[in-house]
Amino acid sequence: MSPSTSAGSGRPTTDAKSTRAAAREQKREEKARKKAAKGPGYVAQMKQVYKITKEHDSNITLKLIAIALGVLVLFLLLGLLLNNWITWLLIGIPFAVLAAIFYLSRRAEGAAFSRIEDQPGAAGAALSTLRRGWIVDQEPVQVDPRSRDLVFRAVGRPGVVLVSEGPTGRVKKLVTKERRRIGPMIQNVPIHVIHAGNKEDQVPLSQVSKQMKKLDKSLTREEVNKVHKRISTLRANSLPIPKGIDPMRARPDRKAMRGR
């Protein structure tokens, strides 16, 4: 008699059933781990983007419908002119969806910045939206522990850009300190300053990256890496980061904002 079957019945024993159940449970756990590693799917991301945007703009649903219908009407009119409105209407459906998604992603970016604009490290979050061609320091390069004013730094083809967070008049001391610190190491490299905030003399968070891209380019890609390596050799600011400031947590979800 086989140890895996009961006498005279040929059926699996309790041990064999337990082994198969354990194997199935292990497979389910592996699938769950893989799914968690991949992150939320496209539909889940779009739901998250829509939810964030709706908190900021309660009329977003009507706007998305209006944009999609507007695109469909354009394709329908084109189809009527060409005497083939059915085909052009079908062609217009994916374009209508793409137009709505594009508008949603742009609105979601503004909503994301609105949620973090009062949090410490928000200026660093604005720099996180920069794409290729920029090297951004993850932590502030200058900190005032008392006022919690911050200065972040990015290196790109325009040179070195210092982005401050705090009242412009007060944070200028930190900006000047950082200029003096890195200036001797990069004497021929432009140093630009952008004051992030909602005051008249400041740049809104959502416009910081756009403002940086408008700066005149003076370095090549190879020179950008060299400049960053040179200033990275300097000792980091010895002042401790104030408690509660975590630029990484303040960052918006770029994938969610793009809908990917």
TL;DR of this structure?
The protein has helices at residues 14-38, 42-56, 60-81, 85-116, 122-127, 168-182, 205-213, 221-232, 247-250, 254-258, and strands spanning 135-136, 142-143, 150-156, 159-165, 191-196. It is an alpha+beta fold and 260 residues long.
Question: How would you portray this structure in words?
Answer:
- The chain has helices spanning 14-38, 42-56, 60-81, 85-116, 122-127, 168-182, 205-213, 221-232, 247-250, 254-258; strands at residues 135-136, 142-143, 150-156, 159-165, 191-196.
- It has 260 residues and is α+β, with helices and mostly antiparallel strands.
- It folds into two domains: 42-116, no CATH class; 122-251, no CATH class.
- Strands 1, 2, 3, 4 and 5 form a five-stranded mixed beta sheet that branches.
- Helix 2 (42-56) crosses helix 4 (85-116) and helix 3 packs antiparallel against helix 4.
- It is extended.
- The N and C termini lie far apart (59 Å).
Tag the structure with descriptive keywords.
10 helices, 56% helix, extended, 260 residues, single chain, five-stranded mixed β-sheet, disordered C terminus, alpha+beta
Question: Helix and strand layout, with pairings?
Answer:
Blueprint: H1 14-38, H2 42-56, H3 60-81, H4 85-116, H5 122-127, E1 135-136, E2 142-143, E3 150-156, E4 159-165, H6 168-182, E5 191-196, H7 205-213, H8 221-232, H9 247-250, H10 254-258
Parallel strand pairs: 4-5
Antiparallel strand pairs: 1-3, 2-3, 3-4
Helix pairs in contact: 2-4, 3-4
Biased composition (Polar residues): 1-16
Transmembrane segments: 60-79, 85-105
Region (Disordered): 1-39, 238-260
